[in-house]
Design goal:
- 38% of the residues lie in helices and 16% in strands.
- Helix 4 packs across helix 5 (197-210).
- It is α/β, with parallel strands linked by helices.
- It is globular.
- The protein has a seven-stranded parallel β-sheet. The protein has a three-stranded antiparallel β-sheet with strand order 1-4-5. It has a two-stranded antiparallel sheet with strand order 2-3.
């Protein structure tokens, strides 16, 4: 069995103007869709970030994969190492660690690895989860992921969505009710670090009143100073299932944990085994939020799960703006991990466009259920792929990191430095 063709297609899809620590999401999210075609007629799919530097790195490796066996993951690793040079002296602690230059090789390997594994599972005729050790569960629970939000994008690139503005506690609770009603989620996460921290804490308390018994989380993306983290921890004592990246760096996270006893979670500062070892020494995070995109694929995510079990950490999964291929890859690896302690994150309900056959991946009672279909269980809708690729070409965006500059168009006084509060 040989790989006969590898295709990488950049796409853009509508992203609502939701707020975070860096500002506001720009009008389109960018992704790269990977197809690995074999001489058996099977096509393995992958999905990763679509910013231009990542596309360039995917292209550097692409041709070297033709002729490999789709089962040759070591050959994939050699190709990545031969063509991608990274500066490991750069830190990873930014809002989206997966797009950081220091993650270039890991990111590219992980992106292609998913497509290789999807092809493998199709060839063997089993769901991908079976190649990852088998099912620990038939369905994977996800959490309602809430954002504060502007009413619409500037310059009206497309009609405003029907969520409207989400800038008050009442509007936030309303958005949570819609998420729970439409998708059945049974836990709730708030993306914070955007408004006044005390008001964001009030919003969490409003959610507790509206959804008694629901697990709650708050994630300021390290946009709070230590004294702010202390104050909000006191206000929300006994309310949160975990406190996600409230302050910058493992050292401050460890100090906040020692002082408050509140369980800390991170997707920002434990994103490699080097940082994992540092965390073992400092105990800055007790919950590791994995992400197969910047951990280096599905097998590396399972390795991380084993390390968490060894060192007594709890585990869940982080999300960014993704489409159905990525959601299903995340679901298969989550289903294979016995020590998954919390509902996973997903931005997926905020998306109005996708490129998998049959429309969006469904949530039932807050879960994505695995089927018996081989591989990831999804196929490309080629018309939708062409449509979203045309949208990529037409929108003119090639990176999605200008959230602060975009926010300054809404609010010229918006500060770019962090932590801001």
């Amino acid at each position: 069995m040989k790989i006969t063709d590898v295709r990488v297609t950049p796409v853009a899809f509508r992203d609502p103007p939701v707020l975070n620590a860096s500002g506001v999401h720009v009008a389109y999210a960018l992704r790269a869709i990977i197809e690995v075609e074999t001489d058996t007629g099977h096509v393995g799919l992958g999905e990763t970030y679509g910013d231009l530097p990542i596309l360039q790195n995917l292209e550097k490796v692409r041709a070297a994969l033709v002729g490999l066996s789709p089962f040759d993951l070591n050959g994939l690793k050699r190709a990545v190492r031969a063509h991608i040079k990274t500066d490991l002296s750069q830190g990873f602690a930014n809002l989206n660690p997966g797009t950081h230059a220091a993650k270039a090789g890991t990111n590219v390997f992980g992106a292609y690895e998913v497509a290789f594994l999807d092809a493998q599972a199709q060839i063997v005729g089993v769901p991908l989860v079976e190649l990852l050790g088998g099912r620990c569960r038939d369905e994977v629970a996800y959490s309602a992921y809430l954002f504060f939000k502007q009413e619409k994008h500037l310059d009206d690139p497309y009609p405003a969505d029907d969520w409207g503005p989400i800038l008050t506690a009442e509007q936030l609770v309303g958005s949570a009710r819609r998420m729970v009603r439409d998708y059945g989620f049974k836990s709730i996460k708030l993306k914070a670090g955007a408004l006044d921290p005390d008001y964001e804490a009030e919003c969490i308390l409003a959610l507790r009143e509206a959804f008694p018994g629901y697990p709650l989380r708050i994630d300021p993306n390290a946009n709070w100073r230590l004294e702010t983290g202390r104050r909000i921890a006191a206000r929300l004592k006994g309310v949160l299932e975990y406190y996600e990246d409230p302050v910058p760096g493992l050292a401050q996270m460890a100090q906040l944990h020692r002082e408050t006893g509140v369980k800390m979670a991170t997707n920002m500062v434990v994103t490699s085994m080097d940082e994992f070892r540092e965390n073992v020494q400092l105990n800055g995070a007790q919950v590791i939020l994995s992400d197969h995109h910047f951990w280096g694929g599905l097998l590396a995510t399972r390795q991380l799960a084993q390390m968490c079990e060894t060192f007594g950490y709890e585990l869940s999964m982080h999300s960014n703006s993704h489409l159905g291929i990525s959601l299903m890859a995340m679901t298969h690896v989550a289903a294979s991990i016995p020590n998954l302690h919390f509902a996973c994150d997903t931005h997926y309900p905020w998306k109005t466009e996708d490129l998998v056959e049959g429309g969006p991946v469904p949530f039932v009672d807050g879960c994505v259920r695995l089927t018996d279909a081989p591989g990831l269980g999804v196929k490309l809708d080629r018309a939708k792929l062409a449509e979203l690729h045309r949208q990529y070409l037409d929108c003119g965006m090639r990176v999605t990191s200008e959230q602060g500059a975009y926010m300054r168009r809404y609010d010229p006084s918006f500060p770019l430095e962090k932590p801001r509060f």
